[in-house]
Write a structure and sequence with these properties.
Blueprint (H helix, E strand, L loop, with lengths): L4 E3 L8 E7 L5 E6 L7 H5 L13 H19 L9 E2 L5 E2 L5 E7 L2 E7 L3 E9 L3 H11 L2 H8 L5 H23 L8 E7 L4 E6 L12 E8 L3 E9 L4
Antiparallel strand pairs: 1-2, 2-3, 3-7, 4-5, 6-7, 8-12, 9-10, 10-11, 11-12
Helix pairs in contact: 3-5
Protein name: Enterobactin synthase component D
GO cellular component, one term: enterobactin synthetase complex
Subunit structure: EntB, EntD, EntE, and EntF form a multienzyme complex called enterobactin synthase.
Length: about 240
């Protein structure tokens, strides 16, 4: 799924169909899963309990939870903590081990996870490419006029470009939430740089969130365009105390 990656060992169940981790300095772990092969016994077999809040959820939601938590466990094991079970805070944000920053995302049959011990704010996101009609209908909520012009100038279908922008802003929100615990509007950050060939993007905050994340703060991101979906990763140095 990524240009440079190592395969992860798969469990015996057909639920996880493929998995790998990139060889980048801040690696992204990923997996493809099949919700049709999900069953409740896997949670016990893999020591990844299903939260009480999801006991009555639809099968799709339970499958997404199991796949993402299995992938988190594989990713965190690479950092020296085998057997880790990710749980959530009351605000539903993930509770990573002390001294570790992480982020996860899933869409349809794909999950991605990024985790590091480096002092970085990070957010990872994966999105299925939206329909052209959806891209047009949501454009005013998602992007400024400057951003729309920038996207229309790219050698991409507008729906794919709009999905990329949405994913970049989702990664930004995930990276900032642990530091700010503030909601964020799509127009409170603006895409100011996009290199399709290199897979690099730059965003600029248009709102004062804090001293460390003030208006005009620039943040760097990477992205990968796949068949039918996009993945984005935003990283930024943690504010010094």
């Amino acid at each position: 799924m990524f240009p440079s990656q190592t395969s992860l060992a798969l469990p015996s169940s057909a639920f996880i169909r493929a998995a790998g981790i990139t060889r980048d300095s801040l690696p992204i772990a990923w997996c493809e899963f099949d919700q049709n092969h999900w069953h409740s016994d896997l949670h016990q077999a893999w020591h990844l309990p299903l939260p009480e809040s999801l006991q009555g959820a639809v099968k799709k939601r339970k499958a997404e939870h199991l796949a993402s938590r299995w992938l988190v466990q594989q990713s965190v094991a690479q950092l020296g903590l085998p057997g880790f079970v990710l749980r959530n805070a009351p605000d539903r944000s993930p509770l990573w081990p002390a001294g570790m920053q992480g982020s996860l995302s899933h869409t349809h049959n794909i999950a991605v996870v990024a985790a590091t011990r480096e002092p970085l704010s990070l957010g990872v996101d994966v999105e299925q490419v939206m329909a052209e009609e959806t891209a047009e209908e949501t454009a005013d909520l998602l992007m400024s006029k400057h951003e729309k012009r920038r996207l229309l100038a790219q050698p991409l279908p507008f729906a794919q470009a709009a999905t990329l922008l949405f994913s970049l802003k989702e990664s930004l929100y995930k990276a900032l939430w642990p530091q700010l615990h503030q909601p964020m509007d799509f127009l409170q950050a603006e895409l100011v740089g996009l290199d399709i060939t290199q897979g690099i993007a730059q965003l600029r905050l248009t709102h004062d969130f804090s001293t460390a994340f003030a208006s005009n703060t620039r943040l760097q991101a990477r992205f990968w365009l796949h068949a039918g979906h996009v993945t984005t990763l935003l990283i930024h140095p943690l504010p010094t105390k």
